[in-house]
User: Fold these one by one.
Assistant:
Number 1:
Amino acid sequence: MNNDIEEIKSKLNIVDILGEYIRLDKAGANFRALCPFHNEKSPSFMVNEEKQFWHCFGCQKSGDIFGFVMEMEGVEFREALKTLAEKAGVKLQSYSPEKTEEKNRTLEILELATKFYEVQLWKGEGKEKILNYLHERGLKDETIKEFRLGYAPSGWRNVLDFLVKRGYKTEEINKTGLLVQKTKSNEQRTINNNENKNSNIDHWSLSLDNCYDRFRDRIIFPISDYSGKVLGYTARVTPGSDESQAKYVNSPETEMYHKSRILYGLDRAKSEIKKQDSVLLVEGQMDVIASHQANIKNTVAVSGTALTPDQIAIIKRYTKNIQMFFDMDSAGENATKKSVKLCLASGMTVRIVSLEQGKDAADIASENPEKLQENVAKALPAVEYFFQKNFQKFDKNKVEDKKKITAELLDIILDLENEVEKNYWIKKLSEDLGVSESALTDELKKTSLKGKNTKDSGPREDIKKIGPTTKKEMLIWEMIGLMLVSSFVWKKACDEAKTRKIFLSDNLLQLMLEKGEQVNFDFTALSNEISTNRELSEKMQNLFSRKKYQLDLNNNLEEIVIEDPWKEFQACEREMEREEKKEELNRIGNDLKLAEERKDEEAKKFLREQSDKISKELAKLMEL
Ligand SMILES: [Zn+2]
């Protein structure tokens, strides 16, 4: 691992790498730039080529190429390592080579297919059929190119033949989701659906392969991950063609493409999201593209109807502030409301952008880009928005309506993560409605109980449950998570606990250290053992799935080398020691104040010595 890092560093120049993201100007021995991590008008971001190091005098962030990519892409170290290894042409020792090779082939195929569709749009059949339509929708050529829109021609084997000719095997192509595998029944169905239209059927049904192109005669929207690698597609039916077809056909879930983890446009929007410390969530691909063209570049969309917890976790790497379009009268109201609630529950700040009825962001952006910007600037905090709307919609002087307003608003307030904020809105609701606060609090309790019993409450409860309250608790939970996913770490921690003090303030950690050997350091075994203790087993399950998810988010579990979780565990331990020292320093500080009040010279002297000693220890720990 360390060799990898050194090799990568030796092969890459910080000026080239950072230059891919930001504009660097030579300033004496250094390079200077506008800091990408905070908003500024005059450059305070410096790059030192000799030391291969960057530093911002504005926000005090600094680091090497790895730190920069982590910060810029909002990714963990491992992901940054992968990205830079690729750039440096370094093969990482710790990865399983076959798996990586297979993934690379899949990405290669998707990239080639995307190019194929692009060529079909600009030079092939799509030029006549599609370009006009896209222009009519207000898209400029440069925008169409930026988002790599394409056209999948009609016919059964266009992309398939193209890729096979370039040496890819059908099974390899099939892994990308570009093909549909023929089965008896869908063969029949496809023929029936298309027999009047398609002349290629003979060719297709006689072919040796039992696969054909998934996307035929459709506008192609490539869907990329945060780094711009194409993982899948959404394909819109060609305007004016057979109306009985589905308007949109999407790539299926593949080993690499997971809809619930993709935010459309993130690769183009991420740096702007960071800079503005805010993301704008719109409904569809066209909305994203039109907004970017209208110079609102912090825009992304989800591929389903509502945000998933995975997507929220990804957004939170870049910002905690989200702006959403919301139309109270639209059919999508419930889905959007669900997204709002989920964001509030995970501690994000949500603002709502109002839209005129029946219009989407793309319409407004193409009619009048400034108007869209105006609307976004006027966005209201979510709770305030729902207050306004509900008080407009219902008559607060009627008892029935009072109930409705209460139900609607408590449903939102319940999700707020911050208790102070929660209290504020309850107070406001009580004033606006002329109902006592205690009546509302009672009602809130009922709502929250009801929420627990319905499936609809979603992962809100989980998110709350797994939120640690102190830094120490967070660290302990990290450590537990690491032990649960890696029996190697679990065993090591137990060995260590025999010889030195390990942090026993947590009941689950204590239990795991005691019972580790007995259950053979196995998550399932301990899980069975403590299944009767609901609180404890739920906590364990939560920490286990959270850690697994965290690791899996950036990597497949099989790629994780055994030393890494252990290193992470040790880093947590060190951080924990630092926290304890800091706490000790605080305690001594308080005692010192008291001693000063008492004018107790002897105590003062002793406490100062103690404080110096611990400060030095802390300084040493900080260096590690
Ligand atoms: Zn800065």
Number 2:
Amino acid sequence: MKLTPRLQAMADLIPLGSIVADIGTDHACLPVYLILNKISRRVVASELNHAPLQQAKETVAAFDCLQKIDLRLGNGLHVITAVDKIDTVVIAGMGGQSIATILRDGRHKLKDVRQLILQPMSEESYLRLFLAQNGFALAEEVLAREGRRFYEIILAKAGQEQEKDLFRLSLGPRLLEQKPPLLPAFLEDKIRKLKVVYHSLQRAEKDDVSRKLQDVARELYCLEEVLTGVTAGTDADSLS
Ligand SMILES: C[S@@+](CC[C@H](N)C(=O)[O-])C[C@H]1O[C@@H](n2cnc3c(N)ncnc32)[C@H](O)[C@@H]1O
């Protein structure tokens, strides 16, 4: 089984010998890959909905992994129990707010979990702030790219997040520190999208957009400063 760059980047963060819960597994490609490549000993692969669970069952059966992948129907972390001894939880391909809701609702299931691997499709900043305010440190962050689309992957662990600057925290503090090769293109993409928002706000010419316009202009300025720092090889730590 060959994974897409997004799923591969997540698989690369999963420790050898782990016991994983993949919440919202859909096609179950990640669990199958983890078992076939002997990265995980067991996987609980869960789904909220019947149709994707059925699809997951077909994939798992096709790769002869039914012994090691336990498929469950249910909402979020409610499907896992202490008996499962899950050490790694993956929640990927949902909005950042949905991921935060799953973590909040299932907080009591995370006591023995060593790491969370989270891949929001949107509201990435919301999720980072949620994690930092709820006792999780952003241990590692990676970027993946499929065509023109970038994906942000967060490895979070129980602990105190050290980044205090809200702008850096929402953008990805470990990305800014480690400067992965995709970072300049990722920042350029963010700036390009934010410029579209800025110009459409400018065209709206309503009084009530002026505050929003100022916020967007400030964010654009900060992003451009970060990009300049990254491409010049310096850290834009001084931004506030
Ligand atoms: C877009 S798919 C992502 C599949 C896979 N995780 C990936 O990243 O490629 C999102 C899946 O999450 C499931 N889902 C959404 N909310 C859920 C929840 N609260 N609990 C379990 N599954 C959920 C949906 O049914 C859907 O199949």
